[in-house]
Each structure stands twice: as C-alpha cells, then as structure tokens.
Amino acid sequence: MRHLLTAEELDPETASAVLDTADMLKSTLLGREVRKLPTLRGRTVITMFYENSTRTRVSFEVAGKWMSADVVNVSASGSSTGKGESLRDTARTLSAAGADCVILRHQASGAPQRIAEWLDPTGTRVVNAGDGMHEHPTQALLDAATLRERLGGLAGRRIGIVGDLLHSRVARSNTHLLRTLGAEVVLIAPPTLVPEGARNWGVEVTHDLDSQLPGLDAVMALRVQAERMHGGFFPTEREYSVGYGLNAARTAKLPEHAVVLHPGPMMRGTEIAPRVADSARAAVEQQVRNGVHVRMAVLYHLLAGEENTA
C-alpha cells in the first residue's frame, strides 16, 4: 500500500490486513503503563488540515506518537496558504522538509489524490483524512474494526446508514468498504438527501427507516452537515428527527445484538437521542478508541510494513 486515498481502492486482503494489524497493536498495548512502540522511530508524519477536526486529527497525532514517529501539526490558518501559496507548493514544501507521510484533510474532493500524484516521485506517503464530500477511508476502517469487535465479523451482516447521505464522505467510504468485506448495506435517507446515482453503488436505497430496523445488525446515524447545505433539504430539524432520528423507540425495534454507531460530532436530539447515544448499545466511544489503533495500523503499513515483514 503506497498511499491511502479511498476506501474504494482497498481490496478484501489489504483491508483485512490493516484491521488485523490494528487488532494486534491494540493487544500489544493493552495494559501497558507507557503506550509506546519504537516502530516508526525516525519517521516524520505531518498532518495538514484545511477543515476543522477533533477526532481524526487527534487520533492521527496519538497514533503517530504511540509509534514513536515525530508528528508535526500544520493548520491551514497558520500556514503560507493564508498568503496565497498553492496546494502543490505547500505539499512539496512539506515533502522537502522531511515528511515521510502527509495526512491531509481538505474541503475539495480529490485534493489528496492530486498531492499523491505530485509527491509520488519523492516517496512521501499520503493519507486522505477526508476530502470534501468524496471519501474518508480511515473512518470506514475504524467503523469496520468496531463492527468486527461487536458482531464477530462482517460477512453477511446487514448495516444501515441513515441520514445526510448527500454530503457525507463517511457514507461513501463505509458503503465501499463494508461491501468489500462482505456486508450488505442499506442506505436510508429523505429523498432530498440521497446522492444522484446512489442506486448504482450496488446497495439498497430506501426512505423508510422504521421498516428496516428489525432486520439490521447495525445502524449508523450520520451528522446533518448544515455547513454544506445551500437551500432547504428538509423543513425543520424537528421534522428530520421525527423521520430519521435514532430515538429510544426506534432502537427498541432493532435486534438485541444490533449496534448503534455515529462518526461524530453528534447532534444530540436531531440525529440521535442522548439516551441512545449513551446506551450500552452505542459504540461511539469504542469507535474513537479503535480510530487510534486503526490509524496506527495505516501508518505501519505505509511506512514500516514491508521492511518489518522482510
């Protein structure tokens, strides 16, 4: 694996290898007072975020530091992009400064792919930490890791993804990866929030959440991305919650073993009720914990996997 740009590009073997490595790293660190491995000592990892983030940015930073890499955080507001520097020049500057891996979040779909093309000759690895409304592959990997833990496996499981599909890179990446790993995916949203061509993704698309709940092994509520909405996609937040919010009555319709996920940040009372978010059925905090180990595994496969195997 040279770069990690999309979940769609991951084949079953590569995706499973990353998840297995995450499990191994999690077991290795379990119970350690000092959570530190020497695996990436001497490597430099640079995070470059053009959009706000808490979970993704922090977990990448923790992942790198737990593997003894030197982690440098660069914010767009504090970089030369504020002076008009191009994305290409910024990327090449980071590479010339010694970056072994650049982790990029950008508002433009396709930005990580362009950077990977520009930096490929230099040997610098690129990880997509979310690009526009396109993809968020490490989120899909950590969601898959959480579902494997809670359900014992993904093959044959039926996973529902609910809410703002139109603006969600998480929905796209999860759809691709879950299907790759053998799960059945059903997309559930108001008609105005279903992407054009979603029915060509090889999944079922429906507007009726309640009828789907009894047959789901897991349900993922998506954040309503108001910052990407220009125009009215639903009348009011209350009406959205009535039709598509995960409340206690709805989660009671799920099978007893079913899991509730949310990529965060949660809009409590709109997408998910506080009682559901804080219940034993919810795996939200488990997703965050798994995010660190999954991102450790991604860095391992990009920067150390081949040489350590050899």
From TrEMBL:
Family of the protein in this entry: Belongs to the aspartate/ornithine carbamoyltransferase superfamily. ATCase family.
Record's keyword annotation contains Transferase: yes
Species annotation: Actinopolyspora mortivallis
Primary enzyme class: transferase
InterPro entries reported for this sequence: Asp/Orn_carbamoyltranf_P-bd, Asp/Orn_carbamoylTrfase, Asp/Orn_carbamoylTrfase_sf, Asp_carbamoyltransf, Asp_carbamoyltransf_Asp/Orn-bd
Keyword Nucleotide-binding in annotation: no
Phylogenetic placement of the source organism: Bacteria, Bacillati, Actinomycetota, Actinomycetes, Actinopolysporales
Binding-site list for L-aspartate: 83, 169, 223
Protein's recorded name: Aspartate carbamoyltransferase
